[in-house]
Design goal:
The chain has about 425 residues and is an alpha+beta fold. The chain has 10 helices and 18 strands. An 8-stranded antiparallel barrel has the order 6-8-9-12-13-16-17-18. Helix 1 runs antiparallel to helix 5. The two termini are about 90 Å apart.
Length: about 425
């Protein structure tokens, strides 16, 4: 009677274990193709699609490593081995559970004693369970060990493990620190990096006039005929690289130079007697002859004609410059810098008039003069940069521009451009 009761218990346990632990045959062919997926999600995919029972420590951050994997008609045990090899794990097949553990947890000497998994596709898995239960029949005292075997179910139930909140990987803390460092250190690109700028300025334009032939008075008259104006414009676009306090820039600029030509001249005629000879006769006395002229004179009244010129002279140049600036005050939100540069200017157009001296002072049009088409220029400046936001600065600057060569090729005077100005610009940092 007791023997029958024990047999009934064993058969019941076998049926229960078979229903709980049954899983897909490890020789089952698997087709899989994933990209950039966490190892834990990939194992969950195998569990759901192939009824694979898995046991692992979900708090291990290495299961959140992202991998890409592809398998075409591969046995299940090879797929699991290759996936765990990518994450640095091994596994053992205990009953019909796959227990996953890190390689570092098992010494090398013991790992070599673990028997490899052998799959016999001709033997169904239910036969494996039946053999296991046959062993328990001969040792009835081990029937009570079924509690420890069933305890695997509470340890390795994958459905209960999958709902545990994923722990934050340790490496994420370093990443957060790095992001915060970038957020609070956006000024780093102001110290080392590329930037682009655009600026516009107005300047007082004039010409430095000196005598070439020693006629200082005429040079003075030329200088006085062209007055300072505040109508000249400078527009430039630049690209620069920052080396902490030192900044080097290359720029393209357009300069429209205007002066007010103001000159007046008075032509006077008349104001004298015009003498005319009406007749002549002579008297001979001895050997001498005396000539007598009969003359008449007419008074010509004085006549004055005044010519006045008041117009705008304009010269336009296209320039290429190389500038260098150094910050004497270098702080988070403001810079104060000194700047200098050299340029090469091309004359685009010339419209206006000036005075010349042939026999007397006269007005001559620019089209009748020969201009230098190219000239070298220099610039000096004192400016500041005010931070608008993380990417932009606004830059007011006082500057001086001068030319090395004369405006004309051939003239009675030397005439070189010069100008003081104020400009404002915006810089964008990459």
């Amino acid at each position: 009677m007791i023997d029958r009761f024990l047999n009934l218990i064993i058969i019941s346990v076998f049926i229960f274990c078979s229903s709980v632990f049954a899983q897909t045959d490890l020789s089952t062919k698997v087709n899989l193709n994933v990209y950039d997926m966490k190892v834990s999600d990939l194992l969950d995919k195998l569990h759901k699609e192939y009824n694979l029972n898995l046991s692992f420590n979900a708090s291990d951050s290495t299961f959140y490593k992202r991998i890409s994997y592809k398998a075409v008609s591969k046995p299940m045990h090879e797929v699991v081995a290759e996936i765990l090899n990518l994450s640095g794990h091994d596994f053992k097949n205990i009953d019909n559970q796959i227990v996953i553990y890190p390689r570092s947890e098992i010494p090398t000497s013991k790992r070599s004693n673990i028997a490899p998994i052998t799959i016999n596709s001709n033997i169904p898995e239910s036969k494996f369970d039946t053999v296991f239960m046959d062993k328990l029949i001969f040792k009835t005292d081990t029937l009570f060990k079924t509690d420890t075997i069933i305890r695997y179910d509470t340890i390795v139930r994958y459905d209960t493990i999958s709902i545990i909140k994923e722990p934050e990987p340790e490496k994420a803390k370093n990443k957060i620190k790095k992001i915060r460092s970038d957020v609070f250190n956006n000024d780093s690109r102001r110290d080392n990096g590329w930037a682009f700028g655009i600026s516009y300025g107005k300047l007082f334009a004039d010409f430095n006039v000196t005598s070439l032939d020693g006629d200082i008075n005429f040079a003075k008259q030329v200088d006085e005929s062209e007055k300072w104006t505040f109508n000249s414009n400078v527009l430039s676009v630049s690209s620069m690289h920052n080396f902490n306090r030192l900044k080097i820039a290359a720029a393209i600029s357009y300069k429209g130079i205007t002066t007010n030509f103001d000159f007046s001249n008075i032509n006077t005629t008349g104001g004298l007697f015009e003498i005319d000879t009406l007749d002549t006769y002579y008297t001979i006395s001895g050997i001498d002859t005396s000539w007598v002229y009969i003359k008449d004179s007419v008074w010509i009244p004085m006549d004055q004609v005044e010519y006045k010129y008041n117009q705008i002279n304009r010269l336009t140049y296209l320039g290429l410059q190389v500038n260098m600036s150094y910050s004497i005050i270098h702080q988070r939100n403001i810079d104060l810098y000194l700047q200098g540069g050299l340029g090469f200017d091309f004359l685009l157009s010339a419209n206006g008039s000036t005075i010349t001296k042939r026999t007397e002072i006269d007005v001559i049009d620019f089209k009748d003069l020969t201009f230098n088409k190219t000239t070298l220029s220099y610039s000096l400046g004192l400016g500041s940069r005010f931070k608008l936001n993380d990417g932009y600065d606004i830059c007011p600057e006082l500057f001086y521009i001068g030319h090395f060569k004369d405006v004309y090729q051939d003239a009675a005077v030397s005439k070189k451009f010069r100008g003081f100005g104020l400009k404002i610009g915006i810089i964008y940092y990459l």
